[in-house]
Specification:
Layout: E1 6-11, H1 15-31, E2 38-43, H2 46-55, E3 59-65, H3 68-71, H4 89-92, H5 96-106, E4 111-116, H6 121-127, E5 135-138, H7 144-158, H8 162-172, H9 196-202, H10 204-208, H11 227-239, E6 243-247, H12 250-262, E7 268-272, H13 277-286, E8 289-293, E9 297-298, E10 303-304, H14 309-318, E11 322-328, E12 335-336, H15 339-348, E13 352-356, E14 380-383, H16 385-388, E15 396-400, H17 407-417, H18 424-461, E16 466-467, H19 470-473, E17 484-485, E18 489-493, H20 501-512, E19 518-519, E20 523-527, H21 534-549, H22 573-577, E21 582-585, E22 607-609, H23 624-636, E23 641-643, E24 646-648, E25 651-656, H24 659-664
Parallel strand pairs: 1-2, 1-3, 3-4, 4-5, 7-8, 7-11, 11-13, 13-14
Antiparallel strand pairs: 6-15, 9-10, 12-17, 14-15, 16-18, 18-20, 19-20, 21-25, 22-23, 24-25
This protein binds pyridoxal-5'-phosphate.
Length: 677
Amino acid sequence: MSKPTSKVLVINDEPLILKDLLKGLNAAARTLDNPFGLTFVGALTAREGLQLIERDGDIQIVIVDDKLYAVQEGPRKAPPARNGSKESPRSLQVSALKLVQKITALRPELDIYILIEKEKEDQVVDALFAEAVDGYFYREERDYRGIYRILNAQIAERARTPFYDALRAYVLSAKDAWHTPGHSSGDSLRGSPWVDEFYEFMGEHVFDADLSVSVKALDSLMEPTGVIAEAQQMAANAFGARKTFFATNGTSTANKVILQTLIAPGEKLLLDRNCHKSVHHGVVLSGAQPIYLDSSVNRKYGVFGPVPKKTLLRAIEEHPDAQLLVLTSCTYDGLRYDLKPIIDAAHARNIKVLIDEAWFSHARFHPDLRPTALESGADYATQSAHKTLSAFSQAAFIHVNDPTFKEHLFRENFNMHTSTSPMYSMIASLDVSRKQMMMEGYKLLERTLMLAGELRQQINSTGAFRVLELEDLLPDEVKDDNIRLDPTKITVDISSCGMTVDELQAELFTRFNITIEKSTFNTITLLLTVGTTRSKCSRLYDALMRIAREKRAPRRLYRTPDLPPFTELVYLPRDAYYCGGELVPLLDENDQANASLAGRICADQIVPYPPGIPVLVPGQLITENIVEYLIRYLRVQNKVELHGVAYQGYFPSIRVLSAAEERRLSSLRELPRQKAA
Ligand SMILES: Cc1ncc(COP(=O)(O)O)c(C=O)c1O
């Protein structure tokens, strides 16, 4: 196992003092127990310090001398510039306060200590009170061993994984289990002539770490007061939330929990129609009255983008009685909203904001990807830690910054959706993912972003494949909305490669063992994460280059039919969903669109997957156009799933309300019009 390296950067503008500090501290690091590989490095100017922080992902702690504070104000001789720049060295200095702010903006996960003079203690502490400063040392004391011990303990604290540590300790102490799960640490499988192979394949710790709520030492996800509570609080600190909750059924459940917590039946909700289906399920569960906002769409590539800012601002204006706004940022393709003005506008109307960051858990740990939703003011953010971090599938975070958070209500809803037998290794993986991002997230993301840059160039150099940049991906409607792109998602135009997207995917898989994240009719999307390696990038480049060199003649690509515009929500989705309804075939006896469906009301959510955007939601008016779209979809896209469609024998059908059910329900038509904004 490789040993960690942890650097402490000392910023002090007096070369002799800096030299002494580094000598004393490094001597302490060499002679005392040093499990985290602490070494001390120095910078003579704030700029040099910031450059090092940006360049060196091993820096964990920064010690800032508050002397820098004085340099701007008093006529003090500053050291010469070390980077050869012509700028006056004096102008490179900033106050300790500003420097702390800049460090925090760059890498909020770093610990910051201040070296102060005893006489100025109150003044300095007051000035830095509101900043994320972790402690102070007196410069004159020169207590190097004392400073080293404190910093070592600080790193130990950040590197702790309370839940995983307890789980591991419990497993290694090998208790006799008289409780669930039934495999009893794998005893039921081990040695079996029939199923031992499964045990061997999965590995012993998969089984002996699979425990139950009966193990009190491991706390309870339903009512955490011990190691889970501690691990969640550490995650909250890491991600900049007031509170963080571990969810063990993905962002899918996280979204449903929040919708059910915040919205009472009949209350209004503004949501991107393109939100993940879990948000739409949350609408059914909560009984919300949804106001659907149409996302922008790039028809050339079949890519859905953000909701235009003007649509959002208008909807907020028109529905000040809404309780919640839900948006996805970044999208599956990496498009990120400029969230702050939108969230500010929602808050001005007392509308809470939930941002689905399923694809963006990593953003907090690199300045190129920030601001995160929470940093932009969101009340809630849900993140699939399993999508872009090192957590197991289904592991997700719910981050809360809502100043009026009703924890009891949230807890009731959380517990409603959470299994009473959560998988403990999944909880441990959330704890460990948080630790990893705190300790090496910046370094890993630096690498990922660099690899993404290189891979983009390599793909473009093939001639047959072209990476779509922000300008290519952005739908026209959002060109002026300050949308940005998460470069770790790479969408590639494949239309010149001479294969259909299905052929290309099959070729990549069967010939090169490569599986990609997703596709549209003329693009593929690759996902780079903290786990992406250079050799994996090289293998992809090699595969694409080989395919390109085979110079196939261009193929005709059949576009996915365009999603029909939203029609009308006639009944609350919950009311429609809970009707028994009746199944009506999409096709008539002549194999044509069943005209009798037009004018009926859908009882289910009908979602082509991918992309996962509902064509129909419960309570929505069906039109001929929609039936034709669904049929075309089934015919052209025979490989995609069409969730919500039921088969009666070979006949695809959808569940619609019966006439009697429609008469019984109260229609939204009696309220002000509920069309998509
Ligand atoms: C935008 C969005 N939100 C939520 C989810 C659901 O996340 P999970 O798979 O963690 O349940 C997905 C899944 O793809 C998604 O794309």
